[in-house]
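Annotated sample (chain length 222).
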Amino acid sequence: MSKIENTSGVPDDDFHREGLKDRLTQYLEADPKAWHLRYNLALTLTHEGKLDEALQQYNQVLAVSPKHMESLVNMGGIYLSRNQPDLAMKAFTKALGVWDLPLVRANLAVSYMQMGRLEEAERHLKHALRDKSDMPDAWANLGSCLLQQGRLEESIEASQKALELMDDFAVAHNNIAVAMWEMGQEDKAREYAKRAVELDYPVHDKLLANLGLAEPGPDSAQ
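Output written by the structure step:
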């Protein structure tokens, strides 16, 4: 998933620095309305995997600064990771109202994909890619979206664009493998499926079996 660049002013490594959370908490006790410090606390909690606490802090930031886009986007990312696309969609839509960034729109599309609303997802992805064409994850997501709609050639084209930008993008390799198999191009499907497996993508067992790439079971030994 696309992700908004950290704009907190705190290097990513610092979020893991011992005692940072405690120091930020102390500062906030002295100045509870310091929303920029609260945002950094929310990011620290996010990096620690304490997502419920992080969401509470993001909500407190938004109570003071309702249009703080980074908080909205990070909340949307948490909801996507929890498979709560309806909440993610609301967060990303609010963020899009603050600033219509391609990365925000691409994330909004992912929430629509999780909800099975593929036409809306496709529309947002294409809009995002018109404004910023160098997003391999958005191209791969578009490939997945088109694949689910049975538009195989379009899916391959989008996934190939992802690979032009990042040749080890596993999802794109898998998309092309599935599309090629559906089109009866077994050799090409095998080539892309093998690469997806090498990149640790969970290629569907049935496709691997059809392509002769499945691991032999324990009963197959002679």
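Annotation: Residues 1-16, 217-222 have pLDDT under 50 and may be disordered.
Annotation: The longest helix spans residues 51-64.
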